[in-house]
Design a protein that fits this description.
mainly alpha, 319 residues, 1% strand, 14 helices
């Protein structure tokens, strides 16, 4: 297997990969704003967002296949039924993390949602220590506790009313589900010889079918306002673009460089929410956010995170 340095080939490729990550982070940040602006039911909005992404991803996979790329080859000895079950479960995890995140966006501040989501590396380090035999230094444990405590402080200082508390709880649930999706997707990408974009196509398709059935049972309809449908399409474009860029860039940029870039999303979203929706953070929330991001900076540079990444293109955040 080629090393990361061999795949990068030249500094210019690494710079392009870094630029791809920056664009992806901006895309995901804008996606959060689109979800808030839509003011739509999270189930209905998520269903349309998924179906709208299936068409371009399917087209992309078809083009790659016609150009001779081997887009799918199952795990040794795995039956089609088993592979189908694996992809469906991945789709279920993906949509669960996305729906709870979208629901949280509709109930609490955007800064809270993105800051809570930024805690995912803490869970990943815990997974590496518990299951991969990684040893985390005491300093990483301290930083993780500071990050969690700071996030609780920010949420408590900016929460107003039961709806906001429910939104923070949904954001925490989304954090756990998104981390589970990330780790599950990582294991699948390691065990199955599958093109990452083809894998995302399978996940989105299975997720869209599951969401359609669930939404029809719960809501009885997929009806959505034209403006909200437009925002769903915009979310699909920015979110899916971010996914594809990360899938490509992860092959050429080490985690020690890419992971810290993700910490830029909370301040970007926080400032944009202030400018677009008047969500001005208080002094305590602003100071707490700085503390959280500073603590997470040390966590994301942990060798445990690098171990989990394992230089494999990752499925990316559910957005």
């Amino acid at each position: 297997m080629a090393t990361l340095r061999e795949r990068a080939g030249s500094p210019s490729v690494a710079r392009r990969a870094g630029l791809a990550w920056v664009v992806a982070i901006l895309c995901w940040s804008v996606s959060v704003l689109f979800v808030r602006a839509a003011h739509a039911n999270a189930l209905v909005f998520s269903t349309w967002r998924l179906w709208l992404a299936v068409i371009p991803l399917g087209t992309f996979v078809l083009v790659r296949r016609r150009r001779g790329h081997k887009v799918l080859a199952g795990m040794h000895g795995a039956s089609p039924v088993r592979w189908f079950g694996v992809v469906v479960f991945a789709g279920a995890l993906f949509v669960a993390g996305m729906v709870t995140s979208f629901a949280a966006i509709n109930h609490t501040s955007l800064l809270d949602v993105t800051l809570i989501g930024a805690l995912q590396p803490v869970l990943i380090v815990g997974f590496a220590v518990a299951f991969l035999g990684e040893r985390a230094r005491a300093s990483y444990l301290v930083r993780g506790l500071i990050a969690v405590g700071g996030t609780v402080l920010v949420a408590a200082s900016s929460t107003s009313g039961k709806g906001a508390v429910a939104g923070d709880v949904l954001a925490v649930i989304s954090l756990v589900l998104s981390a589970a999706w990330f780790l599950y997707g990582r294991v699948l990408r390691d065990r199955f010889n599958v093109d990452p974009v083809a894998f995302m196509f399978g996940v989105f398709t299975s997720g869209a079918v599951l969401m359609t059935l669930f939404t029809l049972v719960v809501r009885g309809s997929l009806r959505i306002a034209p403006a909200a449908l437009g925002f769903a399409a915009a979310t699909m474009m920015t979110g899916t673009t971010g996914h594809v860029l990360v899938v490509w860039a992860h092959r050429y940029l080490p985690t020690s460089v890419s992971a810290p870039l993700l910490l830029a999303e909370p301040p970007i979203v926080g400032l944009a929410a202030w400018a677009c929706f008047g969500e001005q953070p208080g002094i305590l929330a602003a100071v707490g956010s700085v503390i959280v991001l500073a603590a997470l900076w040390g966590v994301v540079r942990s060798p445990a995170v690098e171990h989990v990444e394992d230089e494999t293109p990752d499925p990316a955040q559910p957005t």
